[in-house]
Amino acid sequence: MTSPEAVVFDMDGILIETEPIWDEVRRGLAAAENLAWPDEATPAMMGMSTREWATYLAETVGLSGTWEEVSVRVIDGVAAAYADHLPILPGAVEAVQRMAARGPVAIASSSPRRLIDLVTAQLGLTPYLQVTVSTEEVDRGKPWPDGYLKACELLGVDPTRSVAVEDSTNGVRSAYAAGMTVVCVPPGFHPPADDVLALCSAVLDSLAELDEPLLETLAPNPA
Questions:
Q1: Ranges of H-type helices in 85-211
Q2: How far apart, in whole angstroms, are the C-alpha atoms of residue 168 and residue 145?
Q3: Which of 19, 77, 52, 65 is nearest to 138 (CA)?
Q4: DSSP 102
Q5: Residue 22 contacts by C-beta under 8 Å, 6 or more apart in sequence?
Q6: What is the pLDDT of residues 67-95, one digit of tens each?
């Protein structure tokens, strides 16, 4: 593709290794209520908006309280874990800085606004980001394209001429549905299956590989 107009990063699983933290907090709340954890629950919630995953926890897993009450308990637990230790992924900060040196950069995350602001401030990324979007701020979470489309709209760029950097199945599907060229850095924690990786123009071992020469070689999203 020609030089991308913008690069939009996911946050959890791309910049910080937090999916296991979310999972531990949610499972802990279920265990405290003696609830069984469904096998499909963890991958199902990856990428969902706050309301979507909190409703899932209340209605499918069976946690007590309204979705609003469930979301507060989970987010409080995750924020406490972040305060204790924020697990930054190797090369994450440098990758954002590298992409910001060439053009507009944004984050489109399933995390709530409170955690996006906390993480970007702790990582010192605020000066490099033109836009951050939480799926709380759009109608639907990932795998729907709403968050990525909103980020591109706020940046004033064409999503079909922009790159998304993702790690999860729902995240890849979201960016692909937005018409973006997708780069995936699969995690060790519930990595996407081969059919999902086939939607990506590049699959990287780490963010250290994300640079300008790579961007210039990416095939555009054919959808």
A1: 92-100, 113-122, 146-155, 169-177, 194-197
A2: 14
A3: 52
A4: T
A5: 12, 45, 74, 78
A6: 999 999 999 999 999 988 899 999 999 99
Find how far residue 151's CA is from the centre of its chain.
13
88 touches 123 (CB < 8 A)? yes
Edge to edge, the sheet with strand 181-184 lists 131-134, 105-109, 7-9, 163-166, 181-184, 202-203
- The helix (run of H) or strand (run of E) holding residue 8 is strand 7-9
SS (H, E, C) 10-54: CCECCCECCHHHHHHHHHHHHHHCCCCCCCCHHHHHCCCCHHHHH
pTM recorded for the entire structure:
0.86
Res 48: pLDDT: 85
CA distance 184 to 170: 12
Gap between the Cα atoms of 37 and 221, Å rounded: 36
Reported as a pLDDT band with limits 50, 70 and 90, residue 3 is confident
- Across residues 9-35, what is the average pLDDT? 94
- The DSSP letter of residue 181 is E
CA 221/CA 61 separation, integer angstroms? 36
**Which residue shows structure tokens 């199945």?**
169
